[in-house]
Amino acid sequence: MSASTFLTAIAFALLAVRAMAGITLYEDFNLQGQSLLTSHDISNLHYSGFNDKASSIIVPYGETWMLYQHAYYGGQVSIKGRGHHRTPAEMGLPNDSLSSLRRIPDFGGPLILLFLHSNYNGRMVAIRGNNVNLQHISFNDAVSSIIIVRGTWILYKHANFAGTAWTAGPGYYSYPWWFENDAISSVKLH
After folding, report:
1. 67, 80 Cβ separation under 8 angstroms
2. How far is CA 5 from CA 11, 12, 17, 30, in A?
3. 3-state secondary structure of 36
4. Rounded to whole angstroms, how far apart are CA atoms 85 and 78?
5. In this structure, are residues 65 and 101 in contact, taking their beta carbons and an 8 Å threshold?
6. What is the rounded CA–CA span in Å between residue 112 and residue 153?
7. Which residue of 24, 143, 153, 177 sits 20 to 30 Å from the alpha carbon of 171, by its own alpha carbon?
8. Domains, the chain
9. Is 189 helix (H, G, I), strand (E, B) or coil?
10. d(Cα 92, Cα 172) in Å, to the nearest integer?
């Protein structure tokens, strides 16, 4: 086998492993016991047989996950990046209380995540560029919390980038303390 063929094979193997990456939940502390690996959002862990069972998790490099205390992305939330989170305290939730989870998408480039309810609860919409009217995606006057993954964004009270404007950069905004609740109608990059 030539060196270039060998390197190509390694590259494809690494891509395959990356495609299979995801969060691993463990039933016991210190990454022990029954486990569940998923690379997809799960709105209700009851259907996977893992509801209210997780006591530790592994989040792989390059991923960030939102862990919710209640099914359908409700209740207390904990946002976890890469690492071995060996106890419920490190997970940021009470023991055996994880009921739903979702990955924070990272497409590269600008990205803002809008949430229907405060504390990142409810429906989530990912936006990667200007959106002149959030009504087109059924999210007009509905935003109550925001995560800005990348970029500086201007949020407008009215469609077509009109009305009161609020500007923010990367960060987690769990409650509308700096923008008006349920009043955002358009967003654009600064």
Report:
1. yes
2. 10, 11, 18, 40
3. strand
4. 12
5. yes
6. 8
7. 24
8. 3-103 (2.60.20.10), 111-189 (2.60.20.10)
9. strand
10. 16
pLDDT in tens, 9-61: 444 444 334 445 899 999 999 999 999 999 999 999 999 999 999 999 999 99
Write the DSSP string, 88-146: HHHHTS-TT---EEEEPP--SS-EEEEEEEGGGEEEEEEE-S-BS-GGGGT-TT---EE
| Cβ 190 vs Cβ 165: under 8 Å | no
Tokens found for residue 64: 């960030």
Angle at 82 between CA 78 and CA 88, to 5 degrees: 40
pLDDT tens figures, 66-75: 999 999 999 9
User: Residue 178 carries which side chain, given as an amino acid letter?
Assistant: W
What span, in angstroms and rounded, lies between the C-alpha atoms of 115 and 127? 11
How many angstroms separate the CA atoms of 32 and 50, rounded?
14
Dihedral sign for Cα atoms in the order 177, 180, 186, 190: negative
Contact 27, 88 (CB under 8 A): no
Here the tokens at position 111 are 């990205």
